[in-house]
Amino acid sequence: MGGNQTMVTEFILLGFPLNPRIQLFLFGLFFLCYAFTLLGNGVILGLISLDSRLHTPMYFFLSHLAIVDIAYSCNTVPQMLINLLSPAKPISFTGCMTQTFLFLSFAHTECLLLVVMSYDRYVAICHPLRYSAIMSWRLCFILVVTSWACGSLLALVHVVLILRLPFCGPCEINHLFCEILAVLKLACADTWLNQVVIFAACMFILVGPFCLVLVSYTHILFAILGIQSGEGRRKAFSTCSSHLCVVGLFFGSAIVMYMAPKSRHPEEQQKVFFLFYSFFNPMLNPLIYSLRNAEVKGALRRAVFKERHFQLE
Fold it and tell me: Whose CB among 40, 125, 179, 297 lies 3.0–4.6 Å from 286's, allowing a Cys bridge?
């Protein structure tokens, strides 16, 4: 680096360059979405932990998906809400790297959890008589721990590769949070290795899992078509359609964001797709699972009935 360059110790997140009134409106809208995300996923976690009928592998994986969604929102949304009220408020370099690491960890973990959940539904529908033997609690714990561990280790690789780069200004990140592609644009060195690792990670953590999910649901579709009972076919479709909605939202936005050709305004495109990660997807997950799942609705009714019965006594 030249003598007139200064090491960056903090960044400023530019966010949406809008007038104060629109920013105040977005603050209120995003705060409501954030509150609903925490409430919805918190209710899912509470129902799964309190209702013994939901102590099954499917809801065990769903509880970890809810944890990931809560962590997503808590990692990025508060900083974004603060920036909407005080646009010039900086984030430290350490805080930015921590935010990047956590975001990537949760993103990778959710990709792997969605694959695990698709495998669980494949076994439940295609091999129902062997479900309990195949999806043992030991295997469930191994799959979940592996998902969290692989997600965190891969995120650590990305952050270590970022830390080797010099950042010498400007210190403005044209994004809503410290997203890895936006951060790399500020490095004053060649980032080819980072780009190669990001592409390889996308193939491993996005394309690969997405193909596995498609294979699982192709088998599930043929199995459902072979069900003689109309009620059984309807129940199987209902259970799997909710998972497909989550998979479509998550993988679709991620693949477009990191692998599709960039538009003329890639930064604005990334900001829009970021909303799917931190707002819409985490907010819709509990809504999709609760409205389209009879067991979750039953658990919610039992919880409400017990609460009313307790108050009457």
Answer: 40
